[in-house]
Design a protein that fits this description.
- The complex is a heterodimer of chains A (169) and B (129).
- Chain A is an alpha+beta fold and 169 residues long.
- Chain A contains four helices and nine strands; from the N terminus they run ββαβαβββββααβ.
- Chain A has a seven-stranded mixed β-sheet.
- In chain A, strand 6 and strand 7 (101-110) form a beta hairpin.
- The relative contact order of chain A is 0.21.
- Chain B has 129 residues and is mainly alpha-helical.
- In chain B, helix 1 (5-20) packs across helix 7 (116-128).
- Classes of the chains: A alpha+beta (169), B mainly alpha (129).
- The A-B interface holds A 71-72, 74, 95-96, 98-101, 103, 121, 123 and B 18-19, 42-43, 45-46, 48-49, 52-53, 61.
- Chain B: Its main location: cytoplasm.
- Chain B: Keywords: Cytoplasm, Fatty acid biosynthesis, Fatty acid metabolism, Lipid biosynthesis, Lipid metabolism, Phosphopantetheine, Phosphoprotein.
Chain lengths: 169, 129
């Protein structure tokens, strides 16, 4: 199973924000098994989806040259369960970045209503810390971004499409 | 406009409550961030982000975490910070009370040094200078 908790990017503006959707399907084991008889997407996996969007937002800001990991969930409020058959619309906004980490704020909407609000902090692994080398094989990350339609929507702050990223080639 | 000590403390207290999940009555001027408030290494990054936002300041990482000094063989011998190292720390962190650390300047003792009061003085020096 691929650990992908965003179905696709719908908008991506470098250094600013990322939007994506997550369709909640009954065929997903986590949806069906988490609370037997009452299927919904577990809130932790909504946080994971936000972290994937946010992690890519932060990593892209550094041209995928940092080893970005989710370090802390600052705040997570859930207003409604994410039921099977619904579509969650995620939006992650860049809050702050430093040379050793970044923060984002994010929301999930379902049928136009706020479903969750989540603040996340990412840290950058320094060389030699925990593991050496990249967290992804370059091709793996590139394929993940491609199937999530990142390259179809990503633009820089001036609205220009990105050609290529050296770190992904 | 300059902030009063009470205003600075209130903002630092709020940042620490959010970052560490502690109650306001735990955040006293004498409380140490690690020993009393349970801060872990990753929390310091969070605290930096929250203080930068609360006070609209920039906090270079070496100002609160002088790891470059504590890992420099010029300033550390056999796990103990030398007199030159202490002088460098004092120069880098004039807002910190290093008197307890000076009595036993093992590098391992540095981790539990910073207090809420130190943070307030650090931020105060940034915003009121």
């Amino acid at each position: 199973m691929r650990w992908l908790w965003v179905d696709r990017f719908t908008e991506f503006v470098s250094g600013s924000h990322a939007k994506g959707i997550k369709n909640v399907s009954l065929v997903e084991e986590a949806v069906d098994n988490y609370c037997p008889g009452y299927p919904f997407l577990p809130p932790t996996l909504i946080i994971e989806g936000m972290a994937q969007l946010g992690g890519i937002l932060v990593a892209e800001h550094f041209l995928f040259d940092k080893r970005v990991v989710l370090a802390k969930v600052g705040r997570a409020k859930f207003y409604a369960p994410a039921l099977n058959g619904t579509t969650l619309r995620y939006e992650v906004k860049m809050d702050a970045v430093q040379d050793n980490g970044g923060t984002v704020t994010s929301t999930s909407h379902c049928d136009g209503e706020i479903q969750a609000e989540i603040d996340l902090m990412f840290a950058f692994l320094e060389d030699g810390y925990l593991i050496d080398g990249p967290l992804f094989e370059p091709d793996d990350l590139k394929v993940m971004l491609r199937i999530m339609k990142f390259f179809s929507v990503a633009v820089d702050a001036n609205g220009n499409r990105f050609p290529t990223y050296e770190k992904l080639n | 406009m300059a902030l009063t000590e009470d205003e600075i403390f209130a903002k630092v207290q709020s940042a620490l409550e959010d970052a560490l999940g502690v109650d306001d009555d735990e955040v006293t001027m004498d409380a140490t961030l690690v020993g009393d408030l349970g801060a872990e290494s990753i929390d310091f990054l969070d605290i930096v982000f929250k203080l930068e936002k609360a006070f609209d300041i920039q906090i270079p990482r070496e100002e609160l975490s002088p790891e470059d000094i504590l890992t420099n063989s010029q300033y550390v011998q056999d796990g103990v910070v030398t007199a030159d190292g202490l002088a460098e720390l004092k120069k880098r962190m004039p807002w910190a009370d290093l008197s307890d650390f000076e009595a036993d300047p093992k590098v391992q003792n540095f981790g539990n040094l910073l207090t809420v009061g130190d943070l307030c003085r650090y931020v105060g020096a940034k915003v009121n200078d």
